[in-house]
Write a structure and sequence with these properties.
about 300 residues; Elongation Factor Tu (Ef-tu), domain 3; 2 domains; six-stranded antiparallel β-barrel; elongated; riboflavin kinase activity; kinase; EC 2.7.1.26
């Protein structure tokens, strides 16, 4: 998959671009609803003998349009979004920078520049896709703005158990620690990637060494607590348990939660290595213990529960 980062106005030359079938949307999470849009475009592209493409945006529009929003955490930061799209067999990815200039474009100028101008011959989008200044362009106006330059497929909402699959719904599930339901809507476990950094190495002294993982501040994490996780490292998959929290037994100074993972049956040094953590199920809330002995006893119970979860 080839990736192109574009700003308005872009400098792509129309007659140097392949004709594509393109899915368009923000696609945070690339959940089952998004997958239906993207897979529709990939399938249509293969049937037409064209390349498939995805147009997405960065940063989230709310960072630009809402004065009170300075920063957004994503279900799928850009790198992970790229990896998932690659697995979905997308040929080309266009990442359009969302800024005030882009937000000010009329719907017609947006279509002319970013759809007709990128040699799109068929566009696929969800029923609620909007474009142009104040979102005045939508799936009811797109044919008019296309003016015959490309055709359009509208994908209806994906409903599971009577409820629309959405990024907002998944965010709410993560806030509640409901990883099982979040995974059902995503079509995969939530995963985050980060590098192992030096911690206090307290875990080694109590028999539970942990990898302290620093994740990007753009990554959305679930609620604080203890979880059953799998860790992907160098094409190997390991089971383990993760603690996401403020370590109240030892300190009251932390302002951001720390992610520590105890990888079962693994003892090698992982310092400065990159790990991917897949979140499977919530085990318990974070607690403040009276001391190390009580903490170790609880961790042993956590380990039993996590091993039982994976064995079942």
């Amino acid at each position: 998959m080839r990736t192109f980062e574009l700003t308005y106005p872009h400098s792509m030359v129309l007659n140097e671009l392949p004709e594509t079938v393109t899915a368009i949307g923000f696609f945070d999470g690339i959940h089952k609803g998004h997958q239906k849009v993207i897979q529709t475009a990939v399938r249509e592209a293969k049937e037409r003998g064209m390349e498939s493409a995805v147009i997405t945006f960065h940063p989230h529009p709310s960072v630009v349009l809402k004065k009170d929003v300075q920063h957004v955490k994503y279900l799928t930061p850009i790198r992970e979004k790229q990896e998932i799209l690659q697995k979905l067999e997308v040929d080309r990815l266009y990442i359009i920078q969302f800024n005030q200039e882009l937000a000010s474009l009329t719907p017609q100028v947006f279509v002319d520049h970013f759809l007709k101008g990128l040699h799109i011959k068929h566009m696929v989008a969800g029923f609620d896709f909007s474009y142009g200044h104040k979102g005045k362009g939508n799936m009811q106006t797109i044919q008019e703005h296309a003016a015959g330059a490309f055709t359009v497929t509208q994908v209806d909402k994906v409903v599971i158990d009577g409820e629309k699959v959405s990024s907002t719904k998944i965010r709410n599930l993560l806030e509640a620690g409901d990883m099982d339901e979040a995974a059902r809507l995503l079509g995969r476990p939530l995963s985050v990637t980060g590098f192992v950094v030096k911690g206090e190495q307290r875990g080694r002294t109590i028999g539970y060494p942990t990898a302290n993982i620093a994740v990007s501040d753009e990554t959305l994490l679930p609620k604080v607590g203890v979880y059953a996780v799998k860790v992907l490292y160098k094409n190997e998959v390991y089971e383990g348990m993760a603690s996401l929290g403020f370590k109240p037994t030892f300190t009251d100074q932390l302002v951001e939660p720390v992610l520590e993972v105890n990888i079962f049956d693994y003892n090698n040094d992982l310092y400065e290595e990159e790990l991917r953590v897949q979140w499977y199920t919530f085990i318990r809330e974070e607690k403040k213990f009276s001391g190390v002995e009580e903490l170790v006893s609880e961790i042993a119970e956590d380990e039993k529960k996590v091993r039982k979860y994976f064995n079942s």
